[in-house]
UniProtKB/TrEMBL annotation:
Region annotation Disordered: where it falls in the sequence: 83-132, 287-309
Organism (species): Coregonus suidteri
Pfam families assigned to the protein according to its UniProt record, in alphabetical order: TPR_1, TPR_8
Annotated protein name in UniProt: Mitochondrial import receptor subunit TOM70
Entries under InterPro entries matching the protein: TPR-like_helical_dom_sf (IPR011990), TPR_rpt (IPR019734)
Gene3D superfamilies to which the protein is assigned, alphabetical: Tetratricopeptide repeat domain
Subcellular location: Mitochondrion outer membrane
GO molecular function annotation: mitochondrion targeting sequence binding; protein transmembrane transporter activity
């Protein structure tokens, strides 16, 4: 696809933006509200679910949910049948912010009004505890939380220890009152008492999870909310939203520390070449001209030297041609420190490779310097603006990104790259009409730009698809046919067409398009991953899908997209330990802090599932 390693149409100027697309595109990590019942039952029946970002379930949710059938297994019927016949506090409907009624009604009990008429000495300890609890409920509903707490405390003191279910309700109700007072430590303590007495008490588990989140104890919060999600079969919006929120927080926390201390890693040569191929007006990616060659490289006719001194930048360019990428940053640094004539070019080339290895902190000062060099080549400045704008977008700063792209268009009005990359970013922002306008401008300047033609078709397709216009969808599909006819060697055109065909359930033809991509670019690991995912969605063939993704890793052992996808599939197969290993490999290859955070959320979801498996198994065998 245009931007290697990503399943969307994000620009190649963003070396890795997949996790950003999850946040901004229309079906990303934030879309937790559309929990599909059928997906859970499909997985419970061990049927594969397509784990791409196009699923309505976030990938962290798949990491939790797909492991669930292993836990529930043969005990599932037992568990759910019991929930129908017993009035468990954990299976009540309605808002969780309210206190509980009687957890196990007493025979002959006619309510608080009748009990009040009895003589105090004739009431059993449990009757008196229930009376105190009911009085507390009235105070709670009236917003008198301190008085409610006193009543619940009285109920706890009166209740016989053997009445564990009732006692757990009193603790949970007091926790609800403490929650209203934002006394989070007390909430955790009372909910822990309730859960100890009734481990299947979902309301208490969820209330404790919320309090733990308020106390910044996200790890234990995730454990609790994971158990809640499993027990509720992923059918409750509140718990799903909290799980999503906590996974993101944990991911960001871990990524912030890990990303700062990670060792820079150069991407594969194929990735780097694909990245540079997305620019047509990029001076630094052009091959060395004859006059730029070092003396010993000149032909026998003896061309005049443009530089007589040793140039770090020219050496860096030579290393680019030789695909000796690890030496480029150091040679550019020599050029910059010597104040050579190619300082601006060296700064831009160094910044580009800083971006490629995921060092945005190192890239930004270089990009800033080039942008502020008003006497330098305008195409250098425009290219720096494109890359800084894309970097801002990756950092979720769309306003600053838009400013940079608009500035690039102002200073270099005939730069096709500006419109091409801005158009892709407009797609991410769901500004499809503006994206089409930018692609049109790019095509006007460069009619032979196959990639811009394909991107325009994809933008039109997305607009038609989301607008539910079948006639416009067909027009966009016809446009793809025209693109691959006119540009038969453009692999990206086939890849984008394949994605649209997959959306339209035309799996056989999509498979053919991916085969065309592989014929044109046999070393592009990403294509194998997409083809593998297609096999899962089309034929439910896990083995073939895994074989293709394994082939991707064989071709490019730095393809984090392949490891991430493999991890998601292994979760689906129930191999949680292997899934965690795959996610960790992807984490080590992440090129941005945000992508790393996304990967940590997947890994943490799988790990939480392994941690809570024994807990849920215990619940299946739990007898009150």
């Amino acid at each position: 696809v245009p931007r290697p390693g990503c399943s969307c149409t994000a620009p190649a100027s963003i070396p890795r933006c997949r996790c950003f697309c999850f946040d901004l595109a229309d079906n990303g990590v934030d879309s937790v509200s559309s929990v599909v019942y059928s997906a859970w039952w499909m997985m419970a029946a061990s049927k594969p679910v397509e784990p791409q970002s196009g699923s309505s379930l976030p990938r962290w949710q798949l990491a939790l949910l797909i492991g669930t059938p292993i836990v529930l297994g043969v005990g599932a019927v037992y568990m759910w049948n019991r929930s129908k016949t017993k009035d468990s506090p954990g299976k009540r409907d309605g808002e969780r912010t309210t206190p509980e009624g009687s957890a196990s009604p007493i025979q002959g009990q006619d309510g608080a009004a009748n009990r009040a008429s009895r003589e105090q000495e004739d009431m059993s300890p449990l009757d008196r505890a229930q009376g105190a609890k009911n009085k507390g409920n009235k105070y709670f509903k009236a917003g008198k939380y301190e008085q409610a707490i006193q009543c619940y405390t009285e109920a706890i003191g009166l209740c016989p220890r053997e009445n564990q279910t009732d006692l757990s309700t009193f603790y949970q109700n007091r926790a609800a009152a403490y929650e209203q007072q934002m006394k989070w430590t007390e909430v955790v303590q009372d909910c822990s008492q309730a859960v100890e007495m009734n481990p299947r008490y979902i309301k208490a588990l969820f209330r404790r999870a919320k309090a733990l989140e308020r106390l910044d104890n996200n790890k234990e919060c995730l454990e609790d909310v994971t158990a809640v999600c499993i027990l509720e079969a992923f059918q409750n919006q509140q718990s799903m939203l909290l799980a999503d929120k906590v996974l993101k927080l944990l991911g960001k926390e871990k990524a912030k520390d890990k990303y700062k201390n990670r060792d820079p890693l150069m991407p594969s040569p194929q990735f780097i070449k694909s990245y540079f191929s997305s620019f047509t007006d990029d001076i630094i990616s052009q091959p060395l001209q004859k006059g730029e060659k070092k003396d010993e490289d000149k032909d026998n006719e003896g061309e005049a030297a443009e530089v007589t001194e040793s140039s770090g930048y020219l050496k860096a360019k030579q290393y680019m041609e030789e695909e000796n990428y690890d030496k480029i940053i150091s040679e550019c640094t020599k050029e910059v420190e010597s104040g050579g004539r190619y300082t601006a070019e060296a700064l831009l080339l160094r910044a580009t490779f800083y971006l490629l290895i995921g060092n945005a902190t190192g890239a930004q000062p270089d990009l800033d310097r080039v942008i502020n060099m008003e006497d330098s080549n305008v195409k250098l400045r425009a290219n720096a603006l494109i890359k800084r704008g894309s970097m801002y977008m990756q950092q979720q700063q769309p306003m600053m990104s838009t400013q940079d792209f608009n500035m690039a268009a102002e200073i270099d009005t005939r730069n096709a790259d500006v419109y091409h990359h801005r158009g892709q970013l407009k797609i991410l922002l769901d500004q499809v009409e503006e994206a089409v306008g930018d692609f049109d401008e790019c095509i006007l300047l460069r009619p032979d730009s196959a990639l811009a033609q394909a991107q325009k078709c994809f933008a039109l397709y997305r607009q038609a698809y989301t607008g539910n216009s079948q006639s416009q969808v067909q027009t966009a599909m016809d446009g793809f046919e025209d693109v691959i006819r006119r540009f038969p060697k453009c692999a990206e055109g086939y890849a984008l067409y394949a994605q649209a065909l997959t959306d339209q359930q035309q799996f056989g033809k999509a498979d053919q398009m991916y085969n065309k991509c592989i014929d044109l670019e046999p070393d592009n690991a990403t294509t194998y991953v997409h083809k593998g995912l297609l096999q899962l969605q089309w034929k439910q063939d896990l083995d073939l899908g895994l074989d293709l993704i394994s082939k991707a890793i064989e071709i490019d052992n730095k393809c984090d997209f392949a490891y991430e996808t493999m991890g998601t599939i292994e979760v689906q197969r129930g191999n949680l330990d292997k899934a965690i290993d795959m996610f960790n490999k992807a984490i080590n290859l992440a090129k941005s802090e945000m992508e790393m955070a996304h990967l940590y959320s997947l890994c943490d979801a799988a790990y939480a599932q392994t941690e809570r498996t024994s807990y849920v198994v215990h619940l299946l065998a739990f007898e009150e």
